[in-house]
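Handover notes (outgoing to incoming on-call)

Open items:
1. Alpha-hydroxy-acid oxidizing protein: sequence verified, structure written out, both below. Nothing else pending on this one.
2. Nothing else urgent.
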Amino acid sequence: MKTMTCIEDLRQAARRRVPRAFFDYVEAGAYSEQTLRANRADLERLTFRQRVLVDVSQRDTATTILGEKVSLPIALAPIGLGGMQWANGEIHACRAAQAAGVPYTLATMAICSIEDVAEAVEKPFWFQLYVMKDRGFVRSLVERALAARCSALVLTVDLQVLGQRHVDVKNGLSVPPALKLRNLLDMATKPGWTRRMLAAKRWTFGNLAGHVKGQQGVREVADWVSHQFDPALNWNDIEWVRSIWPGKLIIKGILDVEDARIASKAGATAIVVSNHGGRQLDGAPSTISRLPKIVEAVGSQTEVLFDGGVRSGQDVMRALALGARGCLVGRAYIYGLGAGGEAGVATAIDILRKELSVTMALTGTTSIDEVDERVLN
Ligand SMILES: Cc1cc2nc3c(=O)[nH]c(=O)nc-3n(C[C@H](O)[C@H](O)[C@H](O)COP(=O)(O)O)c2cc1C
Ligand SMILES: CC(C)CC(=O)C(=O)O
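Alpha-hydroxy-acid oxidizing protein structure tokens:
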């Protein structure tokens, strides 16, 4: 991992090591990928004020998110199918996050189950919830998260229907991968991945085991989502979620000021300004362009977290400058996972930490509390 000096290095390594359909799945955005590109482009447009001759010999990247102490202002975002990037991927990622002192979010659509991860790690993690039509099953997921002592529930609200990612349709994305010649040839050229997966024997959605008939068979991901997820989900359901989850509630997928206000009134402890990494509403604005207005509207009552396009410590600094309490990072850590399992995720976090620390120094900042819009031009 020593030669991996930036997130792009990890991305290139993941591209070589992860079977094509699963690497493509990570890269993809919805439809024309306009929103996917906007997330990156709008972050890069923000330039820093270079400040000099400030004593920056003592710098601290630590802060708190939802009252939890974090060693830098990030959390690992929920990623469905994480365990298809590296065998037992969710366990690897959670261990790396906990060793680095940042929160980890386990996705409903993870390969390792809540119980698999809870058994393998020492500290609590966050659990991300998708609401499906079968509310009894949703309730049981929440009960399992409570039993596993998850420290926050991340309710994702921007995926009632799936924004199409063309490449997933073309690749016939499924778990486990269909035993087609193309997939078999691809796996043969990724022997490390294949060997680890065969040893781990975790090939399908751990949290959903036994839930739906035929779950054991090959499952086309988009097809499953469109049959199971509840398009009727609405604000009244937040009350129900609140009634079954007494702990911290993070509503993820807010991009509009009006929705931010409603989420805040509905009792969210925090919101995540997110367009799902450009994977849902193509044509939606970038997240960084919406962040300041949302912070202005609800920031004094509700913690505002940010995601979308964060690929460096500089990007973390940009989001903090515009009022985010912290950033969820998605692809940046998933590339690390595909590149090298736990060590790869640890490397990704370390890269972000060092970049943030240097950016703080060169903008004349020594603590996270000092970061505000004055660090930007
Ligand atoms: C491969 C992949 C899978 C994802 N799966 C989920 C998921 O299961 N639940 C969820 O709430 N968000 C999911 N997301 C969205 C991320 O949590 C996050 O919002 C997004 O990745 C942030 O953008 P970034 O990847 O540019 O950092 C996924 C994103 C990616 C790239
Ligand atoms: C299995 C998917 C619904 C996971 C997801 O949220 C995504 O791919 O963006």
